Amino acid sequence: MAPFDLENIQGDIWPGLPKRQEVFLFFRIADDASQRQKFKEYLRNLIPDITTAKAVLDARARIREEKDKTAADDEASKLLPWSGVNIAFSSTGLAALGKHIMNTKVNMEEIRRDPAKWRELKKNQIRGDLFDKGMFDDLVYEGWDDPQELRREYKKDPETKQRQIDGVVFVASSTQKQLEKAVGLVKEKLHMRDIDDDIDEDAACKLILTRKGKARPRQLKGKEHFGFQDGISQPQLEGLDPPPKGEKEPKAVPPGLILIGHDGDALKQPAWTKDGSFMVFRDLQQLVPEFDQFLEDNAHASRSTEKSPASANKLGALIMGRWRNGTPVDLNPHDDNDPSLYRSNNFNYTPVGSHDRCPFAAHIRKMRPRADLDDDEAVIIRRGIAYGPEVSEEEKRNKKTSKERGWASNHHFPSNKYDAVGLSGPGIDGIAGQRLAHHPPRNMGLPDGKKPSEARLSLGAWVTHKGGEYFFTPSLKALREDLSSAPLQAKL
């Protein structure tokens, strides 16, 4: 296996930026050719501030050292001042920088007939129709996003009919002060103007949208707003992560499933994309009081919940696939009281034809079916962070969301489960599954001791998909050699 250049890989691809606070700065590159040239020059100045995988490993080592030191001294550990910066581009952003040709704007057949143009295209063009068309066209025109629910910045510009987001800078930090300092540095180096600011001769990009996230306080740290422990199960990359220890844990996957140009990368992307990775940004709003009320109202939805002393919590566990502390229901469908199971990944849903312990439509089973698919069939690394305030007392009383906070839609996936759940199929993912107004009602099958099971749970909608975009996160080498430019020298 080829060695990894950890100073060439952006740190949020692997191993992930440490974050208590995070800001996403979505920007649009100017249309004028001279301003685009300036953006490439400004981007060159930002490259020394991009946080690499090696820098993240070094930061994590310092954090562990501080924790060990304070634990030995019986003191509370201090937050080390730290910040990290990464950058990614949509297909329109790469096109603005001269490294992508939008399939929608050219006659591809004409290019194929010209050998020189075809060679140049193959040398530069990232493969992937979804990346090319962007999330709006993919998930509104061909998917199940409701355009009425999307933030306007994720939609096309109403006047130009063009996508608005060319790139995103994400800044993570341990403290608010460090975050503000790093965000200010990014804006200064890229000469980034706010959307309503007048464009001057130095401007090369505009800030379209800012999204802010932060870790939840104290004992809720690491949990998303519904109260479930987040980020427990991540794919382990061969050669980078420690190999899984449990007999039933998912095996380590080839690094090329995440990192372009490495073992397992089947798409044969252009050479300049090596050590880069694709990033999907999804903006998800969570309706927490409504979800909690649903669990209370439906606590006795099946025999498997009505016998539980914590029936509402158990129903939530069946919908998620883990209890709120993290215990997989496949390992313990009865309670969440064994700390040794809180972060366990040593399960695989076998026998795969049964959902007596974990429903087929449980969120984590839909997202990664484990024994139902090959280990390297489909993997993603999740880097989410909660946004928005904690649920207020007023929201708890009214059982209705008034403030924004955030965090698979196929009824018949996993397939061939009709003997266990009947002809209605496993059902929709109870957390992230989408339905438009003309679709069949949302529901999922629950275990009830019968075969096939008869219990069906009608589901509400507690996650609103607010939009997002598909991005490519380039390597440091690609940023230096392919996407940025040294300042042009004035002629005397």
TrEMBL record:
Pfam families: DyP_N (PF21105). Residues 394-406 have a biased composition (Basic and acidic residues). Residues 8-99 form the DyP dimeric alpha+beta barrel domain. Residues 225-251, 390-411 are annotated as: Disordered. The keyword Iron-sulfur does not apply. Its cofactor is heme b. Keywords: Heme, Iron, Metal-binding, Oxidoreductase, Peroxidase. InterPro entries: Dimeric_a/b-barrel, DyP_N, Dyp_peroxidase. GO terms for cellular component: cytosol. One of its GO terms (molecular function) is metal ion binding. NCBIfam families: Dyp_perox_fam (TIGR01413). PANTHER family: DEFERROCHELATASE (PTHR30521:SF4), DEFERROCHELATASE/PEROXIDASE (PTHR30521). Belongs to the DyP-type peroxidase family. This is Dye-decolorizing peroxidase msp1. It comes from Aspergillus udagawae.
